[in-house]
Structures are given as C-alpha cells and as structure tokens.
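Reading a protein record of the kind used here takes only a little practice. Think of the row as the fold of the chain written in a discrete alphabet. With that in mind, consider the following protein and its fold in token form:
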Amino acid sequence: MNENKNIEPEKAPAPLERVGERLRLVILGAGESGVGAAYLAQQQGFDVFVSDMGAIAPKYKEQLQQWNISFEEQQHTEELILNASEVVKSPGIPEKAPLVKKLREAGIPVISEIEFAGRYTNAKMICITGSNGKTTTTSLTYHILKKAGLNVGLAGNIGKSFAYQVATERFDYYVLEISSFMLDDMYQFKADIAVLLNITPDHLDRYEYKMENYVASKFRIAQNQTAADYLIYCADDPETVKGMESRTFGAQLLPFSITTKVQPGAYLENDTIIITTNQQQELFNMSINDLALQGKHNIYNSMASGIVSKVLELRNQTIRESMGDFRNIEHRLEHVAKIQGINFINDSKATNVNSTWYALESMPKGVILILGGVDKGNDYSMLNDLVKQKVKAIVCLGKDNTRIHEAFAGMVSEIIDTKSAPEAVYVSYHLANKGDTVLLSPACASFDLFKNYEDRGDQFKKAVMEL
C-alpha cells in the first residue's frame, strides 16, 4: 500500500507480548463491549481490571463477579489504571477526558475493543461504517451471509460484544458495524471487506468541530488494507468522493451509484440494481420494487450489501431471496401498525438530521412528523424541501422545542408541543387522515424525556397500540 498519512494511523501500538509476569489490561467502561473485552482478556491470561465512572448495569456486574474479574464503579482510581500495560477504552469516552490524556502522556496504549479482539481471531472481517445506514446495512449483510449458510457472527455497534464472541465462538466471518469512535482507537486491525456508506456531519463535537477530522476518522476503515482486500464506497456521496481524492488505497475499489453506471461495482438501470465485481462472475440484477427495504437510501444500503455478497461469491438466488425477505431492525423505519388507515412508523434511532432526511425521503406525502429531544446544534435547513413536499404537521416531543418552531415556522400548517410519547401519539393520530403516515423520526437525542432512543421507540409503540 502506498504510504499515506490520511489512511495509515499515526501511531500504531503493536500487540503486546508477554515476558515473564502477566500483563495488566485495564478496561474503561463496563458496558457490552467492555465486559466482553474483560472476558476475552481473562481467557488470554491477562491481569484484568474494569473501571467505570458510572454505575455498572446489574447484568454486567453479575457477569464480572461470576468470572472473578476485578472492577470498580462510579470512579476511576488512577493508581489502579495508570499501571496498565494497555487500556481498552469504551467508544463513548472522548479523547479529551482527563484520564485518557494522562494515559496518552504516560505512553500507555489506548485501543478499542475491536482492535483488541481482532488479535485473537482469524475470521474474515466485513466492516461497515458511515454516518447513516450502518445498522441497516450491517443487519442486511449478516442476514444474506447467514441465509447463504456461512458461519458468521454479528458484532460491533450491534448485537453481542465482538470480544465475547471471539472468546466463546469460532466464526469464519464477522459482519461488524463500526462507528467513527471505534475507528479512532483501531491501529493494527484490518478489514478484509470495508464498506463506507456515506459521510455527513455528525458528532463534530468529538472532532474539534472540524469536518476534515471526522472524515479522516471514517477513512480509517481502509487502513492496513492490501490488494487482496476490498473497499466498497458510495460514488454519489460528495464528502466520500472528495476524501478519496487526497488519499491512496491498497484495496480493490468497488463503488456503488444510482446516478452513474459504474463497473465493477453496483449501479441502477431502469429501476434494476446491477452488480459486477472484478471476478469473472455472472452479474447480479434485481428490481428495486422487489427489495424488502424501500426508499432511495435503502437502494444504497442494498447495493453495498449486494457487492459484499458478490465478493464472497454467494449465489444470486440467495442474495435476491435475502434482500426480498429481510426485516429491518427495531427503531429504524419500523412499521408499528395501521390504524384507521393511518400508518405509524417508529424511526426513533434517527438521532441526527441526516437520518430524519433519509426517513422522510422514503415516505409518501401526508406525513405527521414527530421531531425533537436533545438538539446537538442541528441544522434543520436540509429538511426544508422534504418538509414542504411531504409534511402536513409537526408534533414536537421534547423539553425545549424552540429551535424546531423557528426552523419550520410557515412551512407546515401546525407545529404542536408535547411532553410524552402517549401525548405525541394522541395528537398525531388526531391530526392525521386515512392514508397519512405518523412518523417518529426525532433528529435529536432522547435523553431529555427518555432513557435512550430504544426507550423512546418502545414508549411510542406502546402508545400506538393503546389507541
């Protein structure tokens, strides 16, 4: 691979080698990934210590106790952490956290769970990142591979911890949903097949509010790749295309596009997805009308999963069947019910404006849009055209809805404030007519009124079923 500082990590801590006494591995964060990493580390003979600044959930605490792994909660005891040989950090802990700064200053390697677990498996890695569509594309890809009979695990930002699966399973393939936060702490790890869906502004507070820093983070999905590997990317995404111009890649490049004929890769012709790869294979084709996932954004997601499947030389019939019978994940454009001819859609996982744009783009006209929550400095202007075309009314679900009112005043007939999921559902139901869609796609985090986006989605669904 050509040397390129934008793709290759600046510092790449090598895997630790034991010399004499047991190495001490400290894990910061006792959620799904941290507890899984602790189990794998113990299995590999490390002296393991887990530290969480918050309260550890009962199920994870029970697991740590059952495995006799030392831990602390609601504090970080520095003398028990700064003596580590290496630290596995939760993706949720920012680089600017004082403890992380002290670890860096002390020269102690800080890595992600994915980096750590990747050392202990020879499975093929299919890694999917992007600002939007990661979970759907990861789930669809896993569904296709599973249906094709491959021995495959699902992990990363989704499902059980990758590290725990490495410790307890023997999969030949993993499909991993990888966030930019995970990528930031990955160095030696390599994706055999990397998928970069899109890059749109998100989490910029973690990247000094510089888009170029966030873009560089996303492109780490391609680091360490060789000519035997593949990078699958969206040729229609402006930030991705711009980012590629200043970088070199060791992998074989496979683009997908709905506007241009790209070969090899995936493109759209007369409402038919056509996929070709570098291999001498029969091309794949499928009408977009037969896809289980509808909407323009899901054509992209299906193309990406389809290219992965063709690279792995799966049968076209299996790919078609899987793309046709896939059921989307909970809280992502999830159809809840049809009541009095009104469709209710739960898209609670849409915690940024881009995700809400994708949701609206896939809807017919006549939408009652439920928006709001913790606003991360959102720029709602990108929704203007779709709101004017498709939205009849906006129902706000949050403690402070001022910015939503300011953003959409005059574009819709009504903007109504609500303070609970049952109230939002009740108001939306009475605003809607037969044939309309009530869409919960908040564009905001959920922490003002709910525990998390799952809780928000669950309360929405419960309220719908009680109408």
Observations:
- The chain is about 35% helix and 20% strand.
